[in-house]
Amino acid sequence: MQRQEIIERIARIDAILSARARENKLLSYNSGRKKHKKQIAFHKCRKRNRWVFGGNRSGKTECGAVEAVWMARGIHPYRKNRKNVFGWVVSLSQQVQRDVAQKKILYYLPPSWIEDVIMLSGRKDSPANGIIDQIKIKNVFGGISTIGFKSCDQGREKFQGSSLDFVWFDEEPPKDIYEECVMRVMDRQGDIFGTMTPLKGMTFIYNEIFLNRRGNPQIWCEFMSWEDNPFLPAKEIKLLESSLDEHSLDSRRYGRFSAGEGLVYPEFDPSVHVIPPFAVPPEWQDTISIDPGLNNPLSAHWYAVDWDGNIYVVAEHFAAGKDVEYHSRAIKNICASLGWKSDGAGRYSALIDSAASQRTLASSKSVAELFRENGIMVNTKVDKDVFAGICRVKEYLKRDNGKADIYIFDTCKNMIEEFCGYCWAGGDSPKKVDDHCMDELRYYIMTRPRAATRTELSPIAEDKKRRIRRLKIDAKRRQS
Predict the structure, then answer these.
(1) What is the CA radius of gyration of the chain?
(2) DSSP alpha helices (H): ranges in 24-120?
(3) In what order do the strands lie in the sheet with 348-352?
(4) 336-375 tens-digit pLDDT
(5) Section 211-220 average pLDDT
(6) Strand residue runs (E) in 185-310
(7) Hey, which residues does 409 pair with through a beta bridge?
(8) Alpha-carbon distance 176 to 22, whole Å?
């Protein structure tokens, strides 16, 4: 074969590949040198209720549209595929449907895959300019799949009756429509997925999805910011940044939920500061911090500090409407499970709000005295300067080098929830609501925790430790 003939063949192959790529945009989705890692994480997740909270231009809508097309076509690379798939794409209004979600679906759906288009308005030979009711798609398993389009302004009644394989919410729906769609996917064990910029603040999506207050094991969520999108030029990021105020940036750049008054700790990032539990070395154990409450919740957390001065919140006790004896017993049980350090009499030390030292007319003893009688040796000498304490917490959340100095075990649900919703009331004072964990965190941080020190054992102590370990192993073998 002559060299010129080889060159011509390569050129023809390139032309064919280019034509295919122009017709089928899915071939170029996250396939080049640059990849949107968070989009891929969304597609790979096997959970049935997945949400992306993203800023504008972060790439969130792209992954929602691709997910819907993959499912309908039966070509999803990470999930079990089906034929005759039936799914809905839900937008806020029909106009938004046409301009955003519908446009993205058509972009990633080659015309050769379309069996039919049913229009609400406009012509089926030009569906992008009208309002689509349904798209019939040729499924690779031989059936015909359907993507139906719904808008929230139609009302809840229009979302009844169907059994669905998936629902994609493009932006946040009203709660009644969300709940109706959850019912629609139950029969087929289908999927709910949403892509949204949280402009409405701390709504039911914040509570049920982000905080997952009900502990649904099928819920997954991720935040996408401008920086996560490798296809967004740096110059455009700077332009967008300069056009928004600080509060708008939280939602539109980072995809964060934001209260109207502003978060006290916008530096808090669950993907950075929340970590899975691990066995904490005994040398790291520092103390417990308590914000007392009887009718109101009592918050207690166990704090450890590593050799580099990083703080770890390793356990939580949070309960309301209980007496000191109940709380003391619960704290001791957690200490026992952690192997927490105690004094020679088996008592545990803790910090506590100085208000616990005050006696009331209803009791001859203060809360602090009652805790001490129950083996919790509380120290009421804490620094309660709110503004200074908040500044100190902010320092631990983000150092000058961009890294964190504080990490919270994901079992400390109430502290994580309060971090996400702790808001300013005006001026330099935060709202006095749902702040019990935040208060005792400040008490602890203001003690200026020191790094743990490594304990070097003498050769005799090391030998003794080895012998005890060997005796324990031999004893287990004899028992078995």
Answers:
(1) 29
(2) 37-44, 60-73, 94-96, 102-107
(3) 274-275, 406-409, 311-319, 298-305, 285-291, 348-352, 376-379
(4) 999 999 998 999 999 999 999 987 656 678 999 999 999 9
(5) 90
(6) 191-196, 219-224, 274-275, 285-291, 298-305
(7) 275
(8) 40
**Tell me, what amino acid is at 184?**
R
Q: Kindly give the interhelix angle for 436-445 and 386-397, rounded to the nearest 10 degrees.
A: 80
Dist CA 456 CA 307 (whole Å): 14
The type of residue at 84 is N
Amino acid at position 136, single letter? K
One-letter amino acid of 163? S
Token pair 């110059």 is found at 235
Residues 257, 224, 176, 209: what is their CA dihedral angle, to the nearest 10 degrees?
-70
**For 265-287, what is each residue's pLDDT tens digit?**
888 888 889 999 999 999 999 99
How far is 214 from 442, CA to CA, in rounded Å? 28
* H/E segment holding residue 318: strand 311-319
Q: Are 72 and 145 in contact (CB under 8 A)?
A: yes
Amino acid at 194: G
